[in-house]
Amino acid sequence: MVDGTYFGYSSFRFSWGDHICAIFDQPDQQMEVMAGFMVQGLRASQRCVWVADEHSAAQFRERLGAVGGDLRTLEASSQLVIVSEVDFYLRSNLFEPDRTMDLLRTLMTDGQRNGYPTMRLATDVSWLRDGRIDPDLWEEFEYKQTEEMAELPAVLVCQYDRRQVSGSILVAAFRTHRIVILGEEIHENPFYASPAGPAAHQVM
Length: 204
Prior knowledge:
Elements: E1 2-3, E2 13-14, E3 19-24, H1 27-43, E4 47-52, H2 54-66, H3 71-76, E5 80-84, H4 85-89, E6 90-91, E7 94-95, H5 97-113, E8 119-124, H6 135-149, E9 154-161, H7 167-176, E10 179-182, E11 185-188
Helix pairs in contact: 1-2, 6-7
């Protein structure tokens, strides 16, 4: 198990392979929680990947710099990787779920080749605000991520700004993640619905 005190709740632990949903009301709230998540991973010599638009990436870099992060060194060493959310999720403006999962696995294996056996990945899904994807397809993709993440020495946090995505996308998010962060609070998700039936995630 991995200590989760970076969230400010010392009783919380996560396992490698967890797929977590984080829902925020404002960018400052998101940065407060998620920058801490990344700082903890960087200090533990883990690969940390931030997937977001240009504005979010700039805010993230500013937060890391404020706590003493040497961004130039971290990025040059490939311990810290910042990826455009469009490049991560879309090709020629089309969402290709298998390509995104392949990229996630490539980031994992590339990190291991560079000396980082584990990975933290935080993806900002604000690109969904444009209504580019059917909610059922997104739900299917999130289920697939839950299943495939379970096999990896990594933890994935999908970040949703509730002001920027539709209610149906939020429903899909709640149905497909065993753990949910609401603002600054972490919960077992009672709305998680495994395709194979209800599944309880044990917190140690």
